[in-house]
Design a protein that fits this description.
Bound molecules: nicotinamide-adenine-dinucleotide, uridine-5'-diphosphate
Shape: globular
CATH class of the domain at 220-267 and 296-346 and 363-389: Alpha Beta
Number of helices: 16
Helix content: 40-55%
CATH superfamily of the domain at 220-267 and 296-346 and 363-389: UDP-galactose 4-epimerase, domain 1
Number of strands: 15
CATH topology of the domain at 220-267 and 296-346 and 363-389: UDP-galactose 4-epimerase, domain 1
Distance between the termini: 58 Å
Mean pLDDT: 95
CATH architecture of the domain at 220-267 and 296-346 and 363-389: Alpha-Beta Complex
Strand content: 5-15%
Low-confidence stretches: none
């Protein structure tokens, strides 16, 4: 394997990386990249290993470079030792599915703040670099979304929305705007914001070398689970897996509160390239908060559902006819329960990541949906048929 060069042309020495949450969606793609394309080593920490099992099988050319530790970071004294052994810690561990934020707010806050605190402290105490995964949700809602429906200011805000400087989210300028406490949806964003502030303060007061990542709806294969197949039948994953489940069952896609919220989606493989640049270019990444998303891939959730159901995507990959009724509306109370709330619009500003890491996303929404749905169909269609036939009355 040829030596890897950083963005300034210097040879990159192999690193030992302590990756917490390595068995999740992002962790599995990052581990693949590190094993298949670099000489870096990984101490992989998670409570689950299914999504990286293919990397852990013995006898592969990278086997000596990956070591799995089944550890729950809430209560395991081995964590600090592993952080000490590594050059860099990447913390991905979190409860991060919106269905949990309002129904399990305590677990959400503990997972995203309390459990992350020792990781920050161990890195700071042992002078170890930290890449911490936060979220685009720290930006919360747009100012316009709080104004009363009939206010003239709201109408003015709609006009503001013609000017990107009023809605594009900037790491070093945009405020964090959350709903009231009883809207427990914001428990996640608030916990993530506070841990960001702790990390930033550790950098300012104690010299911690850190990078904070704010992912904007990364999607691709292995995201979350399909309820009843590789996750709990009553579980509610994020939108890609919810809509994939509906498609696999040939049932209408459920649009929460009309599917009017807007999101920008980025392909996981593009996003992993951004993370690799952070890993391998500490001199350019330390001390920064980075948005990682694709501002060109903005759609409403309704548009996303229609793209996923229309002939060009799912019928093409599955060979099945288009649904007669592609979507149905559900209220957020019915779908998520009390205390749900939503971010209305999320467009990342790309100035900082472009300047520091020379990174730009490449994959269009159409292409990323096509490859992801092909994966979902290949992986789950047969299991779903079996599940559905079992539940038919005999
Ligand atoms: P994921 O749920 O697939 O992965 C998280 C992993 O952390 C899981 O494998 C889980 O088992 C592990 N984990 C959780 N608590 C743990 C504990 N106490 N001990 C050990 N392991 C534990 O989620 P993901 O999509 O891969 O997200 C990774 C990170 O990125 C999270 O911090 C999330 O908040 C952030 N993020 C992701 C997105 C996205 O678009 N995927 C968006 C915003 C933020
Ligand atoms: N959503 C939806 N139907 C579903 C699942 C989600 O309409 O079956 C909506 C949800 O209300 C939100 C958006 O899709 O507006 C994205 O939800 P996701 O769970 O992916 O996470 P978020 O981007 O809100 O963090």
């Amino acid at each position: 394997m040829a030596a890897r060069l950083d963005l300034d042309g210097q040879v990159i020495e192999p690193l030992k990386i302590c990756m917490i949450g390595a068995g999740g969606f992002i962790g599995s793609h990052l581990c693949e990249k590190l094993m298949w394309e670099t000489q870096h080593s990984v101490l992989a920490i998670d409570v689950y290993s299914d999504k990286i099992q293919h990397l852990l099988e013995p006898g592969q050319s990278w086997s000596s470079r990956i070591e799995f530790h089944r550890i729950n970071i809430k209560h395991d004294s081995r964590l600090e030792g592993l952080i000490k052994l590594a050059d860099l810690t990447i913390n991905l561990a979190a409860i991060c599915t919106p269905a949990d934020y309002n129904t399990r707010p305590l677990d959400t806050i503990y997972s995203n703040f309390i459990d992350a605190l020792p990781v920050v402290r161990y890195c700071s105490d042992n002078n170890k670099r930290l890449i911490h995964f936060s979220t685009c949700e720290v930006y919360g809602k747009t100012i316009g979304s709080f104004l009363p429906e009939d206010s003239s200011l709201r109408k003015a805000c709609i006009l503001f929305f013609l000017d990107p400087s009023y809605y594009v989210l900037k790491e070093d300028e945009s405020p964090c705007i959350f709903g009231p406490i009883e809207k427990q949806r914001w428990s996640y964003a608030c916990a993530k914001q506070l841990i960001e502030r702790v990390i930033y303060a550790e950098g300012a007061e104690n010299g911690l070398e850190f990078t904070i990542v704010r992912p904007f709806n990364w999607i691709g294969p292995r995201m979350d689970f399909i309820p009843g197949i590789d996750g709990p039948s009553e579980g509610v994953p994020r939108v890609l897996a919810c809509f994939s489940t509906n498609l696999l069952k040939s049932e209408p896609l459920k649009l929460v509160d009309g599917g009017q919220s807007q999101r920008t989606f980025v392909y996981i493989k593009d996003a992993i390239d951004a993370v690799m640049r952070m890993v391998e270019n500490p001199q350019r990444a330390n001390g920064y908060v980075f948005n990682v998303g694709n501002p060109d891939n903005e759609v409403t959730v309704r548009e996303l559902a229609l793209m996923m159901t229309e002939a060009s995507v799912y019928t093409k990959v599955s060979g099945r006819p288009q649904l007669d009724e592609p979507t149905i509306d559900v209220s957020s109370k019915e779908f998520y329960g009390e205390g749900y709330d939503d971010s209305d619009k999320r467009i990342p500003d790309m100035t900082i990541i472009k300047k520091q890491l020379e990174w730009e996303p490449k994959t269009s929404l159409f292409d990323l949906l096509e490859s992801t749905l092909t994966y979902q169909h290949k992986t789950y269609a047969r299991a779903m048929q079996q599940l559905l036939s079992k539940s038919l009355p005999t």
